[in-house]
Amino acid sequence: MARQKDAFYFDGFRRGADYACQAAKLLSEVMHDFNPDQLRERMDSMHALEKAADGVRHDMMDELVTAFITPFDREDIDELGRVLDDVTDSIEGVLNRMYYDNVTDMRDDAVQMSDMVVRATESIRELVDELPRFRRSKTLRELVFAINNIETEADHLFIESMRTLHTTCTDPLQVFAWHDVYRHLEQCSDDCERVANTIDSIVMKNS
Questions:
Q1: In Å, how far are 61, 125, 180 from 128, measured between CA atoms?
Q2: What tens digit of pLDDT does each residue of 8-61 get?
Q3: Which of 17, 79, 84, 134 sits at 20 to 30 Å (Cα–Cα) from 57?
């Protein structure tokens, strides 16, 4: 059982992971039922999640400044809080790029990539739930590997999606727009993997 004085940080990590999950689900919903006329409204909803996630990180950093004892190194707490926040930031970035680049039609491979982000964030939430008992957890390393595997899948899909885009799309503006969106979707998966690797590093240093 985590010590009571550590609970603030573990709760903050959980909240950060939960906002990432909510953002990923919102992105997936937008892509599965795409309506460009609703994109601006969905961006506002996404920004509210991103702002809330920022608030969680700021609260944790404020506490960290004055804390005497922490569950692990201050630098690691700061890093994990940052990379969790990066996930939500990156997911918001996908919607922003779709709006900036005036995407009007959805592509199937982009929908698949958004679903991978949902899977990765759900695994992150499970991983963060295991963090308070990392010394005894039987599933923590499995979750790290699962997120790594999702990122590998996303990389492969990104490569094939970019090739399909450049070999089948004749509209240069659409090529530019989707090149941008695909890269931001890939960044989401990369950031999810960074969370998993950060937690893995923390566990290794404290076991």
A1: 18, 5, 30
A2: 899 999 999 999 999 999 999 999 999 999 999 999 999 999 999 999 999 998
A3: 134
d(CA 42, CA 96): 10
Decide if 106 contacts 83 (C-beta within 8 A).
no
Phi, psi of 151 (to 5 degrees): -65, -40
Structure-token match 């979707």, residue found: 185
User: How confident is the model over 140-174, as pLDDT tens digits?
Assistant: 999 999 999 999 999 999 999 999 999 999 999 99
Cβ-proximal residues to 135 (8 Å cutoff; 6+ apart), any chain: 206, 207
The fold for domain 4-206 equals Methane Monooxygenase Hydroxylase; Chain G, domain 1 (1.20.58)
Q: How far apart are CA 20 and CA 23, in angstroms?
A: 5
Instruction: Return the SS3 of 137.
Output: coil
CA distance 203 to 198: 9
Q: Are 9 and 77 spatial neighbours (Cβ–Cβ below 8 Å)?
A: yes
- Round to whole Å and give the CA distance between 122 and 25: 10
